C-alpha cells in the first residue's frame, strides 16, 4: 500500500523537530512498485553530511517500525536539505540564505510592472528583505516587501562576492571569513 506525504509528515515531524530541524517537504514517488520517500529538512546553520546521515538513520528506524511499511512494500529513503531550486517562501528560508545569490520576481506595485532582480539576500525583517546588487562594480541595495515577492530562488553562484557586498548583507567579519575559507577549500578539492 503506497504511503502519502501527509502520512510520512505525521510520522516523522516530531523526530525531525527534536533533532533541531524544520520539516520543509515530503515527496513520495512510486517507481517500479516501490515508494521513494524524499524528506527535505533544514535548520539554521544547515546540516553537514554526518548530521543528515544520522537523521536519516533515525527516520529509517522510525519508518521501519510502522506496520504499513512492511517488506512487501519496500521503500527508498532520502533525507536531504533544500536544493538551490527550492523556492524561498518563508522568512526562515530567506534568513538561512543570507548572503547567497538569489533571483527574485517582484509583483507590480502601483504604477509599475512586474520585474526581476538578481542579487544577494541582505538584511531581513518580518515584512521586508534587502537585495544587495553588484551593478558593474557599483553596489546598490533595494528593499522589497516580502508580500510583493512572487518567486524567489537561490542561484548557483560562480563568483566570489566582495567583502563590501557581504557586509551590506549583514554578515559579520567572522562569517565572511568562514565562507571565504569554505570557498577556497571547495576550489582546491
TrEMBL record:
The keyword Cytoplasm applies. It is found in: Cytoplasm. Keywords: Cytoplasm, Ribosome biogenesis. The keyword Phosphoprotein does not apply. Its main location: cytoplasm. Belongs to the RimP family. This is Ribosome maturation factor RimP.
Amino acid at each position: 500500500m503506497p504511503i502519502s506525504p501527509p502520512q510520512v509528515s505525521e510520522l516523522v515531524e516530531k523526530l525531525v523537530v527534536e533533532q533541531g530541524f524544520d520539516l520543509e517537504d515530503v515527496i513520495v514517488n512510486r517507481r517500479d512498485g516501490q515508494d521513494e520517500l524524499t524528506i527535505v529538512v533544514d535548520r539554521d546553520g544547515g546540516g553537514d553530511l554526518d548530521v543528515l546521515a544520522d537523521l536519516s538513520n533515525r527516520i529509517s528506524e522510525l519508518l521501519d517500525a510502522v506496520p504499513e511499511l512492511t517488506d512487501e512494500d519496500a521503500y527508498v529513503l532520502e533525507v536531504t536539505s533544500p536544493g538551490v531550486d527550492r523556492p524561498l517562501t518563508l522568512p526562515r528560508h530567506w534568513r538561512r540564505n543570507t548572503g547567497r545569490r538569489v533571483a527574485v520576481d517582484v509583483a507590480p506595485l502601483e504604477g509599475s510592472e512586474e520585474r526581476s532582480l538578481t542579487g544577494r539576500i541582505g538584511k531581513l525583517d518580518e515584512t521586508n528583505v534587502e537585495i544587495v546588487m553588484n551593478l558593474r562594480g557599483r553596489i546598490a541595495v533595494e528593499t522589497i516587501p516580502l508580500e510583493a515577492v512572487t518567486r524567489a530562488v537561490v542561484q548557483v553562484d560562480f563568483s566570489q562576492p566582495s567583502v563590501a557586498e557581504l557586509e551590506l548583507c549583514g554578515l559579520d567579519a567572522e562569517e565572511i571569513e568562514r565562507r571565504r575559507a569554505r570557498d577556497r577549500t571547495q576550489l582546491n578539492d
